[in-house]
């Protein structure tokens, strides 16, 4: 009797141990993701702007020419209020493509929670490929457990674009604009508006969408702090002197009527309604014939040298989705699309910066031939990404609400607003 | 013998307790007097069940669970959380404010819609020349996409817009859509103007059923045009008024496009945020459909209560 019980106990222990080991293997990586070794045709989505379509088409053509048994079918991301909503719906419906070359980092934690994304570390060379290509920057794209559910792809480091003609009209030196410190920036802004050269010195969108702070507060906060994310180690970082300095700077612009509080219908910078704008290198081709522009890094209170100034990356990455049947092909296509050659094509065709180390050195010929992009290439090495944390969108919305109230519309005091927003964000990040 | 008797066709008399009669009664109980009617109404019934009933029941279920959208096959836990989502929603000042905002909206929009559409429909009913042109003119905003019309209103109500230029020193500061006090009323005026054409059509149809003899009798009794309007027209179109009240309330409570586009996401400072806009933010953007469903359930209950009150006050039972 006793020996029978012992045998049962041993058998149960053996079965349990096998199950634990099997589960542990699944959680620990390797190639246990379903379909990780499968090869065949795949579908990918890319952005719907003209230059990225051109890049996508040539990339797919090049791949398909060499892989007749693993064809890539590509299409633009279906229309919706935003790409993130379309991708989220596709994940839920189970019809997401294999790869999306327009995955916003802020949405990645949510897609991961939905079970929609593949941990790229489950591919044998996954982590090493990402870290070799993107260097230290890659760390910003890890989740809280240090896993990569996104491939860092390209950034659009934002800078201050200024209209040289309007600066000249206001009696300012268009070749050496005084925009490095907050005091200089404010003095320049006052001159621009008082002279009548422009209705607004600068006009970032004043609306309440969660992402709008990426183009007013966040770039300046990244610069002021030397590259600190809004949330680090699960805690908000902005309720301090640095955050307050940035917020006070913007508040002064709004209070003095130097920045517009109303939504502008159209492009205020292209229309000459605003003399400055915060945009990335995608804007170079857009404003090429419309505005006689120059670009400088975003200001800081002390006037940080250009080659030390951080900014917001405005990156778009690539996600590999669990709905994909042929994941091995998808991973190979992903590596092909982010190879040195294809990154060069991306730079050439879109002007956007591949998230890879030594960008200006690797593509020295391109930057020599296109000097207007050189400062963006340099800036790309000092960028800050949105934090990859749970409830990221809700956190940014909480921040935007507080910022909008205290800074744009001047209600309440800034330290309290930032402190309250920080508490809300910390609670959201702590929530699963 | 008894078997034969059971198999005999029924004579049609309901009093006969034979098996055929029982079977027919059972069929009639199950399918009603006109089974073909059930067949004909089945497509719409299926539509209502699939498009309205199922989502509503599912939303109620979601609001009591820790729910989020997940990929098919993903192992996720969705535990029952009781009233937790409702507690979160009711403790959120932004949600409370959104219900207050939509209350302001309804207080302006619903009476304005009823009064304007009735007055304009009565006027249109009397007009002989340009009748078609005028009817089409009122209807055009209703059929035009909000996205297109919003651009025109942004132009009209911006700081340097036409409205402020006409008002001169009387223009509000900050201007309409970025003014906490004026943002929601401006949206209410916009929606009233946009939907007026549809409600005018409803009243025009109702006015065709008001007998001309009633007006003649009122005139014989010495009633002028204003008295006739209050004593004949308004009671004559009461069923339409109940319908207009109900539709204006339901569509108003579901306000989304206008705060999303006209005030850039419910600004300034949430002064024009509506419950449905928050449902979109929480459910779709922020990935918390459970919380969004809780807001939705509260909104449905609030609208049902409002509709019941309106029906009682406006005399819907008589219709």
Low-confidence stretches of chain B: 1-16
CATH topology of the largest domain in chain B: MetI-like fold
Q: Note the beta-strand portion of chain B.
A: under 5%
- What is the spatial order of strands in the main beta sheet of chain A? 2-1-3-12-4-13
Radius of gyration of chain A: 24 Å
CATH class of the largest domain in chain B: Mainly Alpha
Q: What separation lies between the terminal Cα atoms of chain A? A: 48 Å
Biggest interface found: A-B, 36 and 35 residues
The level 1 CATH classification of the largest domain in chain A is Alpha Beta
The CATH architecture of the largest domain in chain A can be named as 3-Layer(aba) Sandwich
- Note the total helix count of chain B: 15
Q: What's the CATH H-level homologous superfamily of the largest domain in chain A?
A: Periplasmic binding protein-like II
Tally of structural domains of chain B: 2
Transmembrane segments (chain B): 36-62, 102-124, 136-156, 176-204, 237-256, 291-309
Family (chain B): Belongs to the binding-protein-dependent transport system permease family.
Domain ABC transmembrane type-1 (chain B): 99-310
Region (Disordered) (chain B): 1-22
Q: What this model shows, in words?
A:
- The complex is a heterodimer of chains A (432) and B (319).
- Chain A is an alpha/beta fold.
- Chain A folds into two domains: 42-155 and 316-376, Periplasmic binding protein-like II (D-Maltodextrin-Binding Protein, domain 2, 3-Layer(aba) Sandwich); 159-312 and 390-430, Periplasmic binding protein-like II (D-Maltodextrin-Binding Protein, domain 2, 3-Layer(aba) Sandwich).
- Helices cover 44% and strands 12% of the residues of chain A.
- Chain A has 17 helices and 14 strands.
- Chain A has helices spanning 2-28, 50-66, 83-93, 108-113, 126-134, 164-169, 182-194, 217-225, 241-255, 282-287, 327-337, 340-350, 359-362, 364-369, 374-379, 392-408, 414-430, and strands spanning 42-46, 72-76, 99-103, 151-155, 159-163, 200-202, 231-232, 235-236, 274-279, 293-296, 311-312, 316-320, 353-354, 383-384.
- Chain A has a six-stranded mixed sheet. Chain A has a four-stranded mixed sheet with strand order 6-9-5-10.
- Chain A is globular, with a radius of gyration of 24 Å.
- Mean pLDDT of chain A is 91; it is low at 1-31.
- Chain B is mainly alpha-helical and 319 residues long.
- Chain B has two domains: 17-63, no CATH class; 85-318, MetI-like (MetI-like fold), CATH 1.10.3720.
- Helix content of chain B is 70%, strand content 0%.
- Chain B has 15 helices and no strands.
- Chain B has helices at 2-7, 19-31, 35-63, 84-90, 93-126, 131-143, 146-157, 162-167, 183-207, 212-220, 225-236, 238-253, 257-261, 275-285, 289-314.
- In chain B, helix 6 packs across helix 9 (183-207).
- The relative contact order of chain B is 0.12.
- The model of chain B is unreliable at 1-16 (pLDDT under 50).
- The interface between A and B is large, with 36 and 35 residues.
């Amino acid at each position: 009797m006793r020996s029978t019980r012992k045998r049962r106990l041993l058998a149960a222990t053996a079965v349990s141990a096998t199950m634990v080991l099997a589960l542990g293997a699944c959680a620990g990586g390797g190639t246990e993701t379903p379909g990780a070794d499968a090869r065949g045709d795949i579908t990918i989505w890319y952005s719907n702007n003209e230059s990225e379509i051109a890049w996508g088409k040539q990339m797919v053509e090049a791949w398909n020419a060499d892989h007749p048994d693993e064809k890539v079918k590509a299409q633009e991301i279906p229309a919706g209020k935003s790409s993130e909503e379309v991708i989220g719906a596709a994940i839920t419906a189970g019809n997401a493509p294999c790869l999306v070359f327009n995955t916003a980092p802020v949405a990645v934690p949510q897609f991961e929670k939905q079970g929609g994304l593949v941990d790229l570390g489950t591919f044998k060379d996954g982590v090493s490929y990402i870290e070799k290509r993107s260097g230290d920057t890659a760390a910003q794209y890890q989740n809280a457990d240090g896993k990569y559910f996104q491939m860092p792809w390209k950034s659009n480091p934002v800078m201050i674009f200024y209209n040289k003609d309007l600066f000249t009209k206001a009696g300012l030196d268009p070749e050496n604009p005084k925009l490095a410190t907050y005091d200089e920036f404010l003095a320049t802004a006052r001159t621009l508006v008082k002279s009548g050269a422009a209705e607004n010195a600068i006009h970032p969108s004043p609306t309440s969408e969660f992402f709008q702070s990426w183009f007013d507060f966040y770039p300046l906060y990244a610069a002021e702090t030397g590259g600190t994310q809004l949330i680090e180690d699960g805690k908000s970082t902005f309720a301090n002197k640095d955050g307050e300095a940035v917020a006070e700077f913007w508040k002064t612009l709004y209070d003095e009527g130097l920045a517009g509080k109303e939504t502008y219908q159209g492009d205020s910078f292209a229309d000459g309604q605003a003399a400055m704008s915060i945009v990335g290198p995608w804007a170079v081709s857009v404003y090429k014939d419309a505005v006689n522009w120059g670009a400088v890094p975003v200001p800081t209170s002390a006037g940080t040298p250009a080659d030390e100034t951080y900014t917001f990356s405005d990156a778009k990455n690539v996600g590999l989705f669990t709905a994909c049947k042929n994941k091995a092909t998808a991973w190979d296509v992903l590596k092909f699309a982010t190879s040195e050659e294809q990154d060069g094509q991306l730079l050439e065709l879109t002007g956007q910066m591949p998230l890879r180390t030594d960008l200006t050195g690797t593509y020295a010929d391109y930057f020599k031939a296109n000097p207007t992009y050189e400062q963006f290439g340099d800036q790309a090495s000092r960028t800050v990404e949105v934090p990859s944390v749970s409830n990221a969108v809700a956190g940014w919305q909480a921040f935007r609400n507080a910022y909008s109230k205290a800074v744009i519309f001047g209600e309440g005091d800034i330290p309290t607003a930032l402190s309250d927003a920080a508490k809300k964000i910390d609670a959201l990040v702590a929530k699963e | 013998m008894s078997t034969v008797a059971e198999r005999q066709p029924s004579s049609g008399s309901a009093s006969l307790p034979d098996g055929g009669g029982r079977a027919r009664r059972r069929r009639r109980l199950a399918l009603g007097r006109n089974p073909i009617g059930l067949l004909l109404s089945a497509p719409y019934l299926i539509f209502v069940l699939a498009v309205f009933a199922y989502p509503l029941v599912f939303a109620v279920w979601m609001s009591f669970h820790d729910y989020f959208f997940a990929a098919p096959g993903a192992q996720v836990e969705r535990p029952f959380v009781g009233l937790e989502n409702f507690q979160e929603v009711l403790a959120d000042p932004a949600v409370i404010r959104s219900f207050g905002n939509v209350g302001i909206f309804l207080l302006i929009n619903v009476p304005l819609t009823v009064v304007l559409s009735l007055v304009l429909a009565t006027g249109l009913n009397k007009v002989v020349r340009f009748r078609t042109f005028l009817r089409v003119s009122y209807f055009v905003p209703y059929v035009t996409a909000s996205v297109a019309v919003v651009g025109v209103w942004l132009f009209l109500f911006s700081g340097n817009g036409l409205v402020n230029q006409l008002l001169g020193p009387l223009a509000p500061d900050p201007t309409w859509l970025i003014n906490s006090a004026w943002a929601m009323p401006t949206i209410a005026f916009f929606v009233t103007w946009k939907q007026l054409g549809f409600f005018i059509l409803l009243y025009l149809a109702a006015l065709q059923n008001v007998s001309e003899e009633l007006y003649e009798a009122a005139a014989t009794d010495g009633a002028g045009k204003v008295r006739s309007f209050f004593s004949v027209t308004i009671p004559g179109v009461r069923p339409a008024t109940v319908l207009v009240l109900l539709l204006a309330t339901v569509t108003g409570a579901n306000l989304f496009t206008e705060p999303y586009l006209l005030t850039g996401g419910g600004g300034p400072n949430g002064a024009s945020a509506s419950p449905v806009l928050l449902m979109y933010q929480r459910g779709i953007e922020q990935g918390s459909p459970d919380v969004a469903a809780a807001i939705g359930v509260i909104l449905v209950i609030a609208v049902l209560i409002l509709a019941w009150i309106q029906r009682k006050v406006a005399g819907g039972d008589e219709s």
